[in-house]
What does this fold into?
Amino acid sequence: MGCEVFSSSPCVFQLTCHRATRPILDASNRIIALLGGRPRDQPGKRTGFSFSDALALVSATLRRVMDALPYHAHRRGPCKERTMGASFGGGQTEPSILRQRSAEASFIQELLSCEGLARIAQWADFLFKTYQPEIHSACMESLRVLVAALPHLEEPFGGGMPDRFWGGRTVNRGDSAQQARQGVTWPHTDQGNLAWAWCAVTALGNFDPKLGGHLILWDLGLVIEFPPGATILLPSALLTHSNVAIQQGEERDSVVHFTAGGLFRYVDNGCKTDKVFMAEDYKQMSDEQRAEWHQKRQDRWKNALAKMTKWNPE
It folds into this structure.
């Protein structure tokens, strides 16, 4: 796998659609994001179709499904968006699969069962595991515990947990025929995602990446050419990101794979909510155990930084 390395200084990057990957490093040479490109275009061992076939299948399915659904306002931008998968928060007593509107459930099921979606997820998971092996391994250990405790959270169509990191996915639909939805997302963070893990964004559609569809990482001062079929991984809970409009007559869609941070908090609590943990376990702790527990929570960011891969080309 060819690789080029970039430090986080303001400039425009061109992301190749082929094998080259491009880690983005912080001042300490930690890999903080990855321009993942796309894999070799050869038939998959299980499915028998190539990555290009997978992209075409997902694009066709996504357009057919999303064009049949209405736009619902959301904070990320004017494009159509639907999110599916496992979640935890907002008063839930345990992690569960996001409920879909009854009128849309059959459309979402069609999208989830698309074989090409699993192929995209597998490629994104491979990139995550390759470039952040310690974080990936620690996250996968937690997700296996979670699915063992709550088997209904297992992703039934492949590409998701517990075999892959991804617990959820969002699909976005934008086209220049609808001037208000030119594939744009507004600057935002995805604060519900696990802060030190990556989400994976795969661009789809038919557009000129030199003229539009660029990904902007505002905190790093980076504007990145993001062609159809390419995948970029980033800590979306931490980095403010958005993408720019496409040209008249073009289409840009995307698939985003992620995992909610609340799932890991639930596992850290012994598969309990914060409320139950505080009422049962914390209440029984000694002062020394409580001090250790608080220190462990305060040190999570340090432990996460220690697990991040440092780029060493030698």
About this structure: Residues 140 and 165 are 6 Å apart (CA to CA). The chain has a mean pLDDT of 86.
